[in-house]
Design a protein that fits this description.
The structure holds three protein chains of three kinds.
Chain A lengths: L6 H16 L5 H30 L5 E11 L2 E9 L1 H24 L6 H20 L3 H19 L6 H32 L4 H9 L3 H4 L1 E3 L2 E2 H16 L8 H4 L5 H10 L4 H8 L1 H5 L2 H23 L4 H21 L3 H29 L16 H15 L5 H15 L10 H28 L16 H16 L7 H4 L5 H10 L7 H26 L5 H9 L1 H8 L4 H48 L7 H19 L9 E5 L2 E5 L11 E5 L8 E3 L3 E5 L4 E11 L4 E11 L1
Antiparallel strand pairs in A: 1-2, 3-4, 5-6, 6-9, 7-8, 7-10, 10-11
Chain B lengths: L2 H21 L3 H26 L3 H31 L13
Helix pairs in contact in B: 1-2, 2-3
Chain C lengths: L9 H23 L3 H21 L3 H25 L13 H24 L4 H4 L12 H8 L4 H22 L11
Helix pairs in contact in C: 1-2, 2-3
């Protein structure tokens, strides 16, 4: 089935192109109208496709749109093809919806920025690239979007490039992502080598059929599917900020807050989760790779949650929270619970975007500062923001009814219940489940700490007189996200709560990622109770420590364990370790190469050496250049004469016979036609330098007195031309 | 007269021209010596042309003459130009291309 | 090939000897005169005698051209330039690099000597012995040479006219006077 899917990414891309080219000549109104229209139209088109085109075809693989052949080389043929199936349709809808809302929010947040058009151009470009990533029907097209969103992330993190810190944060994000992209590329190459195609449906069909080409052993006893999955996951870890490549995301908060909400919380960073879910069938072939995905996810979830406990910057806390929640999603997809992972992605998009927009609203009100120790008591001043924040906070903590509760619970229950790892790796499942529960406790605690420090107690900000709620274009999207954070969970109620048909998302995604994970009803209930207890415990503990500002227990805790607190506050020194392990050796190597190869080898030896050589030869040869035409001509005449002399020499003897008769040697040259009269011959038989025979005869005989080895020298002279030729031979006389 | 006599005269004249080119200091005389060499060439062309009974030699002699005229025009222009800037027509003073 | 030989008459020999002597003497005088004007006059003598030699070779057209173009036009050009650049030389032969140039002259001399000797030795071969105007109609006349020029050699003929045009433009440009500020003067 062909459709016009191409319009979905094309609309924002056109908007971006237009704004980059002529945007700065337009008024702010015109700029944001164009930008919002472009994304809004993409939202309308994708909603139309999702709700009216897709349902009828969801069993047959969804809607496709082949724009044309992108490139073909040998066996490789890559079409510029788009596909909207159950999974990509849902993602498409999330991206366009969140994108549109954040565009609207940005019109308020960025209202006073001088580079208005550039900002919206980048935002549009991002949406286009993200939609290409989501809709791409084969890995290379997906990779265009993958790289495109990375580029936009870089451009937007460093949007205020005037400050070096922002520019370096952008570079850090870009370079870290490139490291991951290498993994993506290698994974792609492995898949092409094994399966001969990069089309995602073809790959998945191969994988679902058991795919001998994918289960063949590649390295170290592991199948192709394992290595491809592992390398692709490395790419996903870069994009989705998982250990070991998460370090860029906290720094990425240097960008404008709407960017953090859109790119670094709701959409781009979830691309890795999306990719793993998209290739789920292939991952299922390699339980070990799934175990690694789940393990890394759980570790990241816990690690980031712990770091978030010690942070004091509003956006940094949210960034670590995002990393932690992405870890949850990876556990979801890594336990074969693809629907659960995507469900959490879906709810997370709402509550995390909401939280970020609240952060933007708070910072907007406070004039840009994000230090939570300088906030407090904002609940009364910013009523709308506070209410939305409360909803999102409860959602991320996992308080029942709110969306995060259901999605997080789906992942945690799935982690305990999954059987995807097989008997040998069965221990992975409870381990990651326990890790997630600990991370959930941490999440509830740090998010509550954030809430209490910012919104309750005394106001510690300097600008308390000027505090004001944000304008309507910012509050509007906030409220929508708040509603989403509250209600999105209804899309995926567990069967234990709503009956067998309640898990809308799970059933909807089934054609794309397989049926939802079966969890027994009793276990489900027990898990929900445990989750609720953990969430409430975290919140209660935080209230005890930080309710209405930092309290006595918190101070005592810090005083009791100063070292631990210091380590957590400094984020376990990961940046410093990377600096020592990666950056410094690389820098040293570069410096060494620069000195040895560039300075010495190329500059001194090659460049300098050649110039020295040419210079020296030139100094010598310039003596020949006397600048006097007549002398040149005289030398030319000499050369001519020499040439004539050489050409006029007697030719080499056509035949030379040396016969040895006893003690006598007979030489016969044969009489040859001379150019003038007769030639003159000379024979030196004993090599003493004197000619023993000479005259016009070409033949001569000589008797030796003693046996031995003699040097025979024959001279032929043309007397008219005064030219001569000498022939030498060695003869043995016995 | 037999052709070789003309050729000998031509060779002698060419040598005289060469000697003039190589030895004389005055650029004008050098140019005249070049004219001598060209004339010697013309003579040889015409002598062989007669010996072979082929008038193409005459055509080439004609071309040589036109070439000589062009050479004289440009050569003399250069001499004038050099004389104007350096107040000399001596070849040993014109060695700006000395290395 | 149509080669014909006949024994030269005494008159022919005398004419040839006189003209050859004129050519060589004129050449020698040209390269030995200190005064450029004398050299030009000697050159005129050379060219006049050479025109005579051309005539004995039945090259009537070229003989006329030799007088008109060389002895006429080109010599006038030389005289003009000599007038502009006239100065008698104190040292007609530069001292600088004299040895090199003398050796060059000697080297050239050996080459010409060899060539002359070879011609003399092989004087009996038909090409070098030919001594009569071939029985070709109108040999060397204006009409015969002109017919060749405008048929077989039309393209080279046009090319040579282009060469002359280039020489004219080059001569004009070279002798144009430039002021120090780079603008053209008269």
């Amino acid at each position: 089935m062909l459709s016009h899917l191409r319009t979905i990414p094309l609309l924002p891309l056109l908007g971006a192109a237009y704004l980059i080219l002529v945007g700065r000549h337009h008024s702010r109104r015109a700029v944001h109208h164009i930008a919002c229209m472009a994304v809004g139209a993409a939202l309308v088109v994708s909603a139309d496709a999702f709700f009216f085109g897709l349902p009828a075809l969801v069993k047959e693989g969804g809607l496709t749109d082949v724009v044309g052949t992108w490139f073909a080389s040998g066996d490789l043929r890559v079409d510029l093809a788009l596909r909207m199936d159950a999974l990509s349709g849902l993602m498409c809808l999330v991206v366009t919806l969140v994108g549109t809302l954040i565009h609207i929010y940005s019109t308020g947040y960025m209202a006073h920025d001088k580079d208005y058009a550039r900002f919206f151009a980048y935002l549009n470009l991002f949406c286009g690239a993200m939609l290409l990533l989501v809709l791409g029907d084969n890995l290379p097209v997906m990779f265009i979007g993958w790289e495109g969103v990375g580029l936009c992330s870089y451009l937007l993190i460093g949007f205020w490039y005037g400050e070096t810190a922002n520019a370096s944060a952008g570079k850090k994000a870009f370079i870290t992502n490139r490291v991951g992209d290498l993994g993506f590329l290698i994974g792609m190459f492995l898949l092409f080598r094994a399966a001969g195609t990069l089309d995602i449906p073809a790959l998945l069909d191969t994988a679902r059929g058991g795919g001998a080409v994918l289960t063949a052993t590649l390295w170290w006893g592991q199948p192709v599917a394992f290595w491809a999955a592992l390398f692709l996951f490395f790419g996903a870890a870069g994009k989705s900020a998982q250990i070991p490549l998460y370090v860029w995301l906290p720094d990425a908060m240097a960008g404008p807050t709407p960017v953090s909400a859109l790119i670094h919380a709701a959409t781009m960073v979830t691309a890795g989760v999306y990719m793993v879910a998209r290739l789920g069938a292939m991952y299922l072939l390699a339980p070990a790779a799934l175990a690694i995905v789940a393990g890394v996810g759980a570790l990241t979830a816990l690690f980031a949650a712990v770091i978030a406990l010690g942070q004091n910057d509003f956006k940094k806390i949210l960034a670590y929270s995002t990393i932690s929640q992405l870890g949850f999603m990876f556990v979801g997809v890594g336990t074969g619970n693809f629907a659960g992972g995507i469900f959490h992605l879906f709810t997370h998009a709402f509550f995390k975007a909401g939280l970020f927009l609240c952060a933007g609203s708070v910072m907007h009100a406070l004039g840009g500062s994000g230090d939570i120790t300088r906030m407090g008591g904002l609940a009364g001043k910013l009523p709308w923001t506070t209410w939305v924040f409360r909803v999102c906070w409860l959602a991320i903590c996992g308080v029942p009814i709110f969306s995060g509760f259901f999605s997080k619970d789906a992942i945690v229950a799935g982690a305990f219940a999954t059987e995807v790892f097989g008997p040998r790796l069965a221990w992975v499942s409870p381990t990651v489940g326990a890790g997630l529960l600990a991370a959930a406790l941490g999440t509830a605690f740090y998010m509550s700490r954030l809430y209490y420090l910012v919104f309750t107690g005394e106001c510690r900000a300097d600008t308390r007189g000027h505090l004001h709620e944000s304008p309507i274009e910012m509050v509007g999207p906030l409220v929508v996200f708040g509603l989403g954070a509250f209600l999105a969970g209804m899309a995926g109620l567990p069967p234990a709560v709503g009956g067998s048909r309640a898990d809308l998302i799970g059933h909807w995604l089934a054609p794309a990622v397989g049926p939802p994970l079966e969890v027994s009803s009793g276990f489900e209930w027990r898990m929900m109770v445990a989750s609720t207890v953990i969430a409430l415990a975290g919140i209660g503990l935080a209230r005890l420590f930080f309710g209405g500002g930092a309290r006595e227990p918190a101070r005592r805790f810090v005083a009791a364990l100063p070292r631990l607190v210091a380590v957590v506050r400094s984020k376990f020194f990961v940046d410093e370790i990377y600096q020592w392990l990666v950056v410094r050796p690389l820098r040293g190597l570069s410096r060494g190469l620069f000195v040895v190869v560039d300075r010495i080898l190329i500059d001194e030896l090659l460049v300098g050496g050649w110039t020295f050589l040419v210079d020296t030869i030139g100094r010598f040869l310039r003596l020949v250049q006397v600048g006097d035409v007549q002398r040149y001509l005289a030398i030319f005449a000499m050369g001519l004469a020499a040439l004539v002399y050489v050409m006029a020499r007697p030719a080499a003897p056509s035949e030379l016979k040396i016969r040895i008769e006893g003690r006598s040697a007979v030489v016969e040259l044969g009489d040859r036609e001379a150019t003038s009269g007769k030639l003159d011959y000379g024979f030196d038989f004993d090599g003493d330098g004197r000619e023993d025979r000479s005259g016009p005869s070409p033949n001569a005989t000589w008797s030796y007195t003693r046996p031995g080895r003699y040097r025979l020298r024959i001279r032929v002279t043309d007397p008219q031309w005064s030219t001569a030729r000498t022939i030498e031979r060695t003869i043995d006389i016995r | 007269m037999p052709t070789y006599a003309y050729i000998l005269v031509s060779l002698a004249l060419f040598f005289v021209g060469t000697a003039g080119v190589l030895l004389r200091r005055n650029a004008l005389i050098v140019l005249m010596s070049v004219e001598l060499q060209l004339a010697a060439g013309t003579l040889a062309l015409l002598a062989f042309s007669r010996a072979l009974g082929d008038q193409k030699g005459h055509v080439f002699a004609f071309f040589v003459m036109a070439l000589a005229a062009a050479e004289a025009a440009v050569g003399l222009a250069i001499v004038v130009s050099v004389f104007r800037t350096r107040r000399t027509a001596n070849l040993d003073d014109v060695n700006a291309l000395k290395g | 090939m149509n080669l014909a030989t006949h024994t030269a008459t005494l008159a022919e020999t005398i004419v040839f000897a006189v003209l050859s002597a004129g050519v060589l003497l004129g050449g020698l005088l040209t390269i030995t005169r200190r005064n450029p004007v004398s050299a030009v006059m000697a050159l005129v003598l050379t060219f006049a005698a050479l025109a005579g030699l051309f005539a004995t070779l039945s090259a009537h057209f070229l003989a006329v051209l030799q007088v008109l173009v060389y002895a006429g036009a080109i010599m006038v050009l030389f005289v003009f330039v000599v007038m502009m650049v006239n100065h008698e030389e104190t040292t007609p032969i530069a001292r600088q690099g004299l040895i090199t140039r003398a050796v060059g002259v000697l080297a050239a001399g050996t080459v010409f000597y060899r060539a002359a000797w070879l011609v003399a030795r092989e004087r009996a071969m038909p090409l070098l012995a030919a001594s009569e105007t071939p029985p070709v109609k109108d040999f060397g006349t204006v009409s015969a040479v002109g017919a060749l020029l405008f048929s077989d050699f039309l393209f080279p003929f046009e090319a040579i006219s282009l060469l002359l045009l280039v020489a004219i433009i080059g001569g004009v440009m070279l002798t144009r006077h430039f002021r120090e500020d780079g603008s053209r003067g008269s």
